[in-house]
Amino acid sequence: MKTLKSLFIAIILLVSFQYKANTGGETVAKEVSNRVKQAVIMPESMKQKNGSHKVTVSFMVNEEGKVTEVNALTNDTDAKRDLEKQFMHLSFKELAPCVRHSIDINFLLL
Asked: Which of 69, 75, 85, 105 is the most exposed place for a label (fewest CB within 10 A)?
């Protein structure tokens, strides 16, 4: 039953991303948005709540593109910890190092 519930949530979950490109233009913004969309999953704590949840994640990368700093702006402390952990495993070689980047992630649970 739990698997069926998770599948149902995954089907009705709509996630949109908007990367604010500091450098590199629209192509880089699409690449970053696509990578985040493929890698980031909705935190469990947000799955318990209906409605829309917008989280702005700001992050920095090093010269190799590895995320070195991340801050998820949300009042949900469990979601914040989960999203920051997920971002620390990402790599964005196309982004300028030592520059603050941000992306808006909109989770919608119907």
From this structure: 75
Distances (CA, A) of 109 to 15, 58, 77, 83: 9, 23, 19, 17
Q: What is the pLDDT of residues 90-101, one digit of tens each?
A: 999 999 999 999
Q: Which residues pair with 102 in a beta bridge?
A: 20, 58
Helix, strand, or coil here: 105?
strand
CATH number at residue 100: 3.30.1150
- Tokens at 32, concatenated: 């970053």
- What is the spatial distance between Cα 7 and Cα 10, in angstroms, rounded to a whole number? 5
pTM, rounded to two decimals: 0.77
Domain of residue 105 covers 2-109
The kind and range of the H/E element at 5 are helix 2-12
Please tell me the total count of domains within the chain.
1
